[in-house]
């Protein structure tokens, strides 16, 4: 439920703008207050009057409207919300937000907001696949912007299909709920910018601050005097980041093991840690396949997601996704499944006797990959979820499964890890144990990915 939550909905100028009207309705149904901002492009597709009627609020369209600025400025618009949702997020709006442009009300809000931002991109598949959009996506994701969709399907343009359709309104609602429940953070100013702001211009000048230097890439273009570079293959980020050119496989979430067609055995894993690792690896430039059990999370941007239900399906998907340079097994795989799950719903019997469920062991995916005779990833990382004797069990698991590292965490009920935001982990390797401070799951993911990049670089260098 979203009762009492305030959503600032920025409607961009695309055909999918009509779905934003349904989104307003769905958010309102769940008790949210929705205030809309429409770009000039959006008003070509839907009218501010429709958005106002559905949201029962004034709709804001103009940066320089004196009455609006006197009445409620763009800073207040975003401050008075819990979450800024951009739907549809057009290629143009994403580009503006990624570069910090602010020449209309929508882009001003995105630059000025101190609230988390969730974008639902929608555009033609070629625009979505273009390296410029990929770069903007990576920049926005690194700034902390959340994404839902786009989905694959047919486009408004006749005969075109591919990835670019805006997520459906109910998918966006689920992402809004997840963002608000997960305590998403606003895009934070980077340390460098904080320094400039805090020190002030005089201090910067006194300290002999240097003008911004052109990057190597730009210098090359300038010196070589070359014409435009050949366009990279559509849909690929030009290799950037410490994992550029590497393939990373991640498993995430729980598995569901059927008892009959309507019941299953599951566990409390939310998938947040595994999804965060996949997102961080993609941001570091890796080609990432995420094999995920059933979770209530949006797909991480720039990641190939393979959705499975059972442990056996997960093993198959993992095998199909290999080879990889590194594999991280974060999934809480069910250790057992029901032998001979019933084909029909199991009914209560007249004598009231409960059915006996015979369990059989599931394949151990981490052990299977760790012990592959050929094609084993250079680095195999397991997680150990323990409720007691955390390090002792983790060390035993490292040896038993044959993986390179174990990330051990305490999942006792009092730790709040299962389904929670924060994690306290220990990295167990052949060299010893590192205790990491308590961090949120995104930070754990970024730190682990940095360690993986470092280990792969050493392995590549033959160290
Ligand atoms: N794992 C796996 N396949 C399984 C069970 C576990 O790939 N069938 C992986 C998990 O993804 C995790 C690691 O093995 O990386 C340890 O999982 P955990 O549940 O802590 O350990 P188990 O092997 O199930 O051992 P136990 O239940 O005895 O603690």
From TrEMBL:
EC number annotated for this UniProt entry: 4.1.1.36, 6.3.2.5
Transmembrane segments: none
Protein's pathway: Cofactor biosynthesis; coenzyme A biosynthesis; CoA from (R)-pantothenate: step 3/5; Cofactor biosynthesis; coenzyme A biosynthesis; CoA from (R)-pantothenate: step 2/5
Keyword Metal-binding: yes
Listed cofactors: FMN; Mg(2+)
Pfam family, one: DFP
Cofactor binding note: Binds 1 FMN per subunit.
Region (Phosphopantothenoylcysteine decarboxylase): 1-247
UniProt KW Transferase keyword: no
SUPFAM superfamilies: CoaB-like (SSF102645), Homo-oligomeric flavin-containing Cys decarboxylases, HFCD (SSF52507)
Domain of life: Bacteria
Residue ranges annotated for the DNA/pantothenate metabolism flavoprotein C-terminal domain, each copy included: 243-454
Catalysed reactions listed for this entry: (R)-4'-phosphopantothenate + L-cysteine + CTP = N-[(R)-4-phosphopantothenoyl]-L-cysteine + CMP + diphosphate + H(+); N-[(R)-4-phosphopantothenoyl]-L-cysteine + H(+) = (R)-4'-phosphopantetheine + CO2
Positions of CTP binding: 335, 345, 363-366, 383, 397, 401
Key words, A-Z: Decarboxylase, Flavoprotein, FMN, Ligase, Lyase, Magnesium, Metal-binding, Multifunctional enzyme
Ranges for region Phosphopantothenate--cysteine ligase: 248-463
Domain Flavoprotein: residue ranges: 6-178
InterPro entries named among the record's database cross-references: CoaB-like_sf (IPR035929), CoaBC (IPR005252), DNA/pantothenate-metab_flavo_C (IPR007085), Flavin_trans-like (IPR036551), Flavoprotein (IPR003382)
Cited HAMAP family: CoaBC
UniProt similarity note: In the C-terminal section; belongs to the PPC synthetase family.
PANTHER family to which the protein is assigned, alphabetical: HOMO-OLIGOMERIC FLAVIN CONTAINING CYS DECARBOXYLASE FAMILY (PTHR14359), PHOSPHOPANTOTHENOYLCYSTEINE DECARBOXYLASE (PTHR14359:SF6)
The protein's role, per its UniProt record: Catalyzes two sequential steps in the biosynthesis of coenzyme A. In the first step cysteine is conjugated to 4'-phosphopantothenate to form 4-phosphopantothenoylcysteine. In the second step the latter compound is decarboxylated to form 4'-phosphopantotheine.
Name of the protein in question: Coenzyme A biosynthesis bifunctional protein CoaBC
Organism: Camelimonas abortus
Gene (UniProt): coaBC
């Amino acid at each position: 439920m979203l009762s009492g939550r305030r959503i600032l909905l920025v409607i961009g100028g695309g055909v999918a703008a009509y779905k934003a009207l349904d989104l307003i309705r769905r958010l309102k149904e769940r008790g949210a207050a929705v205030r809309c901002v429409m770009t000039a492009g959006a008003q070509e597709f839907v009218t501010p009057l429709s958005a106002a009627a559905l949201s029962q609020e004034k709709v804001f369209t103009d940066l320089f409207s004196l009455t609006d600025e006197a009445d409620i400025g763009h800073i207040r618009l975003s401050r008075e919300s819990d979450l800024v949702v951009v739907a549809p997020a057009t290629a143009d709006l994403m580009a503006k937000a990624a570069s910090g442009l602010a020449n209309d009300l929508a882009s001003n809000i995105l630059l000025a907001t101190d609230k988390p931002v969730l974008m639902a991109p929608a555009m033609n598949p070629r625009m979505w696949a273009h390296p410029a959009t990929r770069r903007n996506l990576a920049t926005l994701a690194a700034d902390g912007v959340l994404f839902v969709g786009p989905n694959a399907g047919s486009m408004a343009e006749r005969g075109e299909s591919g990835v670019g359709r805006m997520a459906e309104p109910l998918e966006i609602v689920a992402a809004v709920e997840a963002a608000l429940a997960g305590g998403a953070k606003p895009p934070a100013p980077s340390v460098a910018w904080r320094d400039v702001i805090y020190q002030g211009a005089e201090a910067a000048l006194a300290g002999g601050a240097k003008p911004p230097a052109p990057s190597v890439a730009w210098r090359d273009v300038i010196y070589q005097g070359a014409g435009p570079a050949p366009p990279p293959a559509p849909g690929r980020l030009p290799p950037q980041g410490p994992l550029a050119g590497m393939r990373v496989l991640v498993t995430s979430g729980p598995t569901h093991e059927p008892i009959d067609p309507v019941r299953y055995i599951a566990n409390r894993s939310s998938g947040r840690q595994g999804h965060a690792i996949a997102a961080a690896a993609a941001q570091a430039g890796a080609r990432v396949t995420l094999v995920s059990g059933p979770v209530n999370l949006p797909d991480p941007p720039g990641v190939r997601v393979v959705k499975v239900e059972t442990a056996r399906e997960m093993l198959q998907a993992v095998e199909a996704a290999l080879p990889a340079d590194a594999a991280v097994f974060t999934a809480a795989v069910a250790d057992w499944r029901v032998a001979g799950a019933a084909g029909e719903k199991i009914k209560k019997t007249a004598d009231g006797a409960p059915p006996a469920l015979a369990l059989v062991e599931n394949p151990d995916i981490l052990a299977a990959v760790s012990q592959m005779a050929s094609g084993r990833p250079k680095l195999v990382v397991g997680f150990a979820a323990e409720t007691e004797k955390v390090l002792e069990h983790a060390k035993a698991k490292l040896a038993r499964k044959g993986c390179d590292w174990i990330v051990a965490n305490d999942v006792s009920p009092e730790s709040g890890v299962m389904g929670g935001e924060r994690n306290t982990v220990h990295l167990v390797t052949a060299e010893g144990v590192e205790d990491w401070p308590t961090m949120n799951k995104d930070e754990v993911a970024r730190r682990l990915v940095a360690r993986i990049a470092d280990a792969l670089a050493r392995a590549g260098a033959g160290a």
